[in-house]
């Protein structure tokens, strides 16, 4: 079995742990979002929730728990979308030319970068879950140990697919654009609508019909749905909004993320085969 991608994967992970500033910022940023923005907003929304009559037989979830899934989704989005910049700098310093000239196939280069990004996303997701539980997030409330482990595996599966899709997209842009400033502009332009036209931090029920339609196909919405299903359950209420997730709903979200990841892999392979360093 060919494991050529391990060299690319290992190089990226060594870089991640060696540069302490990058490591610290990537790990502390989601915690700060959860600690400051999460606690501040949860107090406001929980006061609003107290004024809304509860739905009989439906668990009420506080906004911090609802937003915790969104913080995971948001963190994974930005880390994966900007993760392809490593290829941009490799191209600028001629490291990518040497890598392409080596016996390592181009698909293994893509997989190595993608899997290193997935590993970082898993580390960051684990930190958010642990820290969120310490803050009082209701993740896995009432779950047995087995159910908790299954839920965590489900969350990681969704996070992994989402991360791969956006890393492949980011890598395709990185080897196409010549200047870092140009890539920065494109990624910022992409991240804003993806983030705001989603249910990461707030329900989409009040969206205009057009934005609600777009949100249904937004990979970030599909990821947030999967995380909430595994972490909060299939039937709960937040700020008066009733959420019911069926197995088919989550299956469709999974298939949507799988299709997105495979499509972006095809695009990145096409771009790498066209690139001339």
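Q: What amino acid sequence fits the structure above?
A:
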């Amino acid at each position: 079995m060919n494991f050529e991608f391990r060299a690319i994967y290992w190089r990226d992970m060594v870089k991640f742990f060696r540069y302490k500033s990058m490591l610290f910022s990537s790990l502390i940023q989601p915690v700060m979002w959860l600690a400051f923005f999460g606690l501040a907003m949860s107090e406001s929304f929980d006061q609003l929730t107290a004024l809304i009559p509860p739905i009989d037989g439906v668990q009420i979830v506080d906004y911090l728990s609802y937003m915790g899934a969104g913080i995971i989704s948001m963190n994974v989005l930005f880390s994966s979308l900007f993760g392809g910049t490593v290829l941009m700098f490799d191209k600028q310093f001629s490291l990518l030319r040497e890598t392409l000239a080596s016996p390592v196939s181009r698909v293994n280069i893509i997989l190595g970068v993608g899997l290193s990004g997935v590993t970082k996303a898993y580390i960051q997701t684990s930190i958010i879950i642990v820290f969120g539980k310490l803050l009082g997030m209701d993740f896995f409330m009432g779950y047995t140990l087995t159910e908790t482990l299954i839920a965590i595996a489900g969350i990681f599966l969704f996070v992994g697919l989402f991360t791969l899709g956006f890393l492949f997209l980011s890598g395709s842009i990185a080897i196409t654009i010549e200047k870092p400033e140009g890539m920065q502009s494109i990624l910022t332009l992409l991240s804003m609508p993806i983030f705001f036209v989603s249910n990461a931090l707030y329900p989409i029920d009040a969206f205009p019909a057009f934005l609600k339609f777009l949100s249904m196909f937004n990979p970030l919405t599909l990821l947030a749905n999967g995380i909430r299903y595994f972490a909060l359950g299939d039937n709960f209420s937040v700020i008066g909004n009733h959420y019911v997730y069926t197995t088919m709903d989550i299956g469709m979200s999974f298939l949507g993320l799988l299709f997105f990841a495979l499509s972006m892999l095809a695009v990145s392979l096409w771009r790498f085969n066209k690139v001339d360093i």
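Q: And what stands out in the fold?
A: The CA atoms of residues 3 and 259 lie 24 Å apart.
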